[in-house]
Every structure is written in C-alpha cells, then in structure tokens.
From TrEMBL:
Keyword Transcription regulation part of the UniProt annotation: yes
Transmembrane segments: none
Organism: Gluconacetobacter liquefaciens
Protein name: Helix-turn-helix transcriptional regulator
Coiled-coil spans in chain: none
Length: 136
C-alpha cells in the first residue's frame, strides 16, 4: 500500500495543536468511541442502550453512558426518547456521525486485514514488558 503525500500545510506544521489529523486522533482517543460508532453503524445506525451494551464485550453501563453523552455533545449521535410506556430510549448516528464512521471503518478494515501485524506488535510489547520486569 502506498501512501499519498501529505499536503504542504501538514509538513510545515506537523505538530500544530489545531491541525485536522491531530484533532481526528484526539476525537478517537477515547477507548470506547470507535467501538460505539462502529457498533451503531453495524446495527443500522441506531440502537437502544441495552442492545448496544450487549454488543460490545467489556463495556460497562457507566462507560457506555459517559461515551454516548460525549458523542451527543460532539453532535455525532442523538438521544431519542420515544413517548411510550415504558419510555424507550434510542441512540442514532447523526449525519455528522455517519461521516465520522468512514475513518473508523477504514481502521477496522485495516485491522481485520492486518491481524498478523497486530499480533506481532502485541508479542513485541509482551516481550518488552517481561524484559523490563526482569530488570527491576
């Protein structure tokens, strides 16, 4: 895979706090952000909280709620309360959220296609940590 060259603006100020790539990475730095966006996408763009929670192993209700609130503040999801008894809550990707799913899906596809590379990275980290523990 060959990478396209970066525009000159990114080469001139690669560490600028406000540069778009850095802002994108900051947005995706939360542990559950990409998983929730990816899962909402897989579930057709909308989900009730219980179904979302069951779809993501290891995600606690507290962290799901916190992350969904952050995504709502960013304008990536909306929280809809349907006025039925009992009330039904549903989270839905906004148009902006669907646009942000694009880079997330690119990362997920890359990860699926390059699982062996990720396995080698994990093995390297494990060896390095074991070596560091032995040196203490």
């Amino acid at each position: 895979m060959s990478l396209a060259p970066l525009p000159d603006a990114y080469r001139q100020a690669p560490f600028d706090e406000g540069c778009a790539p850095r802002r994108l990475l900051r947005l995706f730095s939360g542990k559950w952000v990409t998983m929730i966006l990816h899962t909402l996408h897989l579930l057709g763009g909308a989900s009730r909280p219980g179904a979302l929670l069951r779809s993501i192993p290891g995600l606690s209700k507290k962290m799901m709620t916190q992350t969904l609130r952050e995504l709502e503040e960013m304008g990536l999801v909306t929280r809809e309360v349907h006025q039925v008894m009992p009330p039904v809550v549903e989270y839905r990707l906004t148009a902006l959220g669907r646009k942000m799913v694009e880079p997330v899906e690119m990362l997920y596809r890359w990860g699926a296609e390059h699982a062996a590379v990720l396995d080698r990275v994990d093995a390297h980290v494990t060896r390095a940590r074991k070596g560091a523990q032995g040196a203490v």
